[in-house]
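Changelog-adjacent note: as of this version, every example in the card shows the full chain rather than a window. The one below runs 216 residues end to end.
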Amino acid sequence: MAGNSEWWFTSFVAYRKTPAELRRLEAAREHLVACATSVVAEVGWSQASVTAVADAAGIAAGSVYQHFPSKAALAVEVFRRAAGREVEVLGEVLAAPGDPVERLSRGIQVFARRALENRGLAYALLAAPAEPAVGAERLDFRRRYRALFAAVVRDGIADGVLPEQDGEITAAALTGAIGEVLVDPLGTPGTTTTEALLTELTAMALRCAGVPAAAP
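Full-length structure tokens:
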């Protein structure tokens, strides 16, 4: 038994990956996620098959499973990274110093402009049919967006530039309305100009938060 244990330990050590191998695997995984993101942006979740992603990455389909146990796991990773970046950018804008109403306005415009500049990916993140695992991620990220909007609304109330209200309810309304307004332009480009859409979307959001209308 002692001899067998010693053989097992020696084999385990011998097959442990070297730092160079780990770096190579990590680089391959990053390349795979980047390619999968591009495929999703181009054809949506339903058409982003393992074969299509593998072809884009220049690898065999079976090699995808060296990095992810399933298509759903890869899709979740793509969603988390892409949506996470949008949450990060929006958070930076909304949390910047300055007037809360200006921060809210700027945040909405930055979020919407980024979506309209990468319509395929934005549509995939917001509305495209997807596997249940991706749907669950959408709900989680909606909560994150809501928390960001709620914080800036509370700042506006504290500063006296927004009326008393339930910041969580307003934030939920903003999150839902912004996504709903963007869905059609993202799915059917050319229906309206970017600047006109940004103007109307921002005005709607500020009304929702209770910003007084400018004097004529």
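Structural remarks: The mean pLDDT is 91.
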